Amino acid sequence: MSVSVRIPTILRTYTGGNAEVSGEGATLRDVLAKLDSDYPGIGARILDESGKIRRFVNVYVGEEDVRFAQGLDTPAPEGAQISIIPAVAGG
């Protein structure tokens, strides 16, 4: 299934500067695996060593925060937009 993945500025060096790329997979896990296959190294910036979404990275499938859905097993329906958003801190 084809989806679009929005890439934050900090990770665009992996995608050749593209702010949005195509992805494929039935679940978020599948989409991220394909994304890392197409853009080597990007997966390590999204997932930690144990394969979980990094603490300071938020991922949405459509409008839904996957942390409150099924995590990496959240379905990625055809045409969905996946947004990767690094947390921003400041004071």
From TrEMBL:
SUPFAM superfamilies: MoaD/ThiS
InterPro entries found in the cross-reference section: Beta-grasp_dom_sf (IPR012675), Mopterin_synth/thiamin_S_b (IPR016155), Sulfur_Carrier/Prot_Modifier (IPR052045), ThiS/MoaD-like (IPR003749)
Pfam families: ThiS (PF02597)
Alphabetized PANTHER family for the sequence: SULFUR CARRIER PROTEIN CYSO, SULFUR CARRIER PROTEIN SLR0821-RELATED
Protein name: MoaD/ThiS family protein
Organism: Nonomuraea corallina
